[in-house]
């Protein structure tokens, strides 16, 4: 094999090893917390669904053409390659106050981090119907 192909094959293998490491340590999908096969199977399925949600979250982020296209495309790529623990801390585990007024639900985010702009863009995109 030429040197270039060897490097690309090694990088592909490293990506797979990182994915397995994330499933093992980040999501804990490969741990067996229960004493029966059905419970462990359900735990692994739920953990892999959480990982899949992270991947779809990143893939469905809009990166429209325009002034901020490079910034949005970089954020999209960062979310797809993000470790699961970082995804949970930055985008899921946010302190939020839910207020029910009249016929509306208002979600008040009680803290700020630089991933909130990504979360708001994702929620705006999910409000619209998905188009291929």
Notes on the structure:
The chain is 61% helix and 9% strand. The chain has 132 residues and is mainly alpha-helical. The protein has one domain (3-127). α2 runs antiparallel to α3. The chain starts with a helix and ends in a 5-residue tail after the last helix. The model has no long low-confidence stretch (mean pLDDT 84).
Attribute tags:
132 residues; mainly alpha; 5 helices; 2 strands
Strand content: 5-15%
By DSSP (H or I, 4+ residues per run), the number of helices equals 5
Termini distance? 39 Å
What sequence of helices (H) and strands (E) makes up the elements? HHHHEEH
Whole-number mean pLDDT:
84
Please write out the topology.
Blueprint: H1 3-26, H2 37-59, H3 69-81, H4 84-92, E1 96-101, E2 104-109, H5 116-127
Antiparallel strand pairs: 1-2
Helix pairs in contact: 2-3
What can be said about this structure in brief?
The mean pLDDT is 84. The protein has five helices and two strands. The protein has one domain (3-127).
